[in-house]
């Protein structure tokens, strides 16, 4: 009797006594989407909805991951859906919908196909999750997040692109392997567009606080070898595409987006590089470009403007020009984006 009364008490007080969990909508249920769902569950960031227009895939993946929860020890709810109404009221939306890269393709080759996807996704978010924090992963990243913000009409500080966290993570890994030190002791910053023109900054990247430029002088690495590592960082995604042959990276991109989502949901005020909307910072207006930001409960709460020397500024401007070209191409396909 006592247990029955306890059960009844819980049921009677649902919604009034217990705080509702955060809701995380994953728009796109491919390899990144499934990995996102698993990571969000393991971290217990909230209840998770997997969405995809391919009926059956989000439901199947959601059920599969949910069945791992008793073993993994998390209580998050996982559901799958093929109707945008399922994302209603989401606190965070992570967008991976679109076509992934295949061998021989650049991120830019995906522009026309994925732009149409962003238009559909933007309409769905605008209708059902207008207060959410949006993290876009779809490539070509900088142009897609720019278009997604315009299609959705959400505040610019609440729509960001996942790029810099991933690129910096790749840079950190390659440096840790070169120096044979822990990745935890390495910080790295990669600016600019998420593509061949990205700008890994050696001067602002450190090992235990020691700048890479100083480590060159200390004999830890030659300037030429460091440049090889920087180039491998630029080619990081293409290297994986070439090895997989049938798809693109998904573990590291998912982990990077989850770090951003956690910073927002827990108001952690993390300093993270991401594709953020610039309104004059770095001399750039109305574009999404990778820069250091502070992410907390307000979304992108601050854009950090770091001092760039002549060479760094030239590389950054070249990257911005590449992103601008993609945005112009988007306008050519969807003239409404010019507004």
TrEMBL record:
The positions annotated for binding NAD(+) are: 28-33, 52, 114, 137-139
Q: Which UniProt keywords apply?
A: NAD, Oxidoreductase, Tricarboxylic acid cycle
GO MF terms, alphabetically ordered: L-lactate dehydrogenase (NAD+) activity; L-malate dehydrogenase (NAD+) activity
What's an example GO BP annotation here?
tricarboxylic acid cycle
Q: Which InterPro entries match?
A: L-lactate/malate_DH (IPR001557), Lactate/malate_DH_C (IPR022383), Lactate/malate_DH_N (IPR001236), Lactate_DH/Glyco_Ohase_4_C (IPR015955), Malate_DH_type3 (IPR011275), NAD(P)-bd_dom_sf (IPR036291)
EC number(s) per entry: 1.1.1.37
Which superkingdom does the taxonomy of this entry point to? Bacteria
Residue ranges occupied by any Lactate/malate dehydrogenase C-terminal domain in the UniProt entry: 166-321
Q: In this protein, which residues make up the domain named Lactate/malate dehydrogenase N-terminal?
A: 23-161
UniProt-annotated binding residues for substrate: 101, 107, 139, 170
Q: Which reaction does it catalyse?
A: (S)-malate + NAD(+) = oxaloacetate + NADH + H(+)
What residues form the catalytic site here? 194
Q: Which Pfam families match?
A: Ldh_1_C, Ldh_1_N
Instruction: Explain the purpose of this protein.
Output: Catalyzes the reversible oxidation of malate to oxaloacetate.
Which family, according to the similarity comment?
Answer: Belongs to the LDH/MDH superfamily. MDH type 3 family.
The protein's name: Malate dehydrogenase
Name the gene. mdh
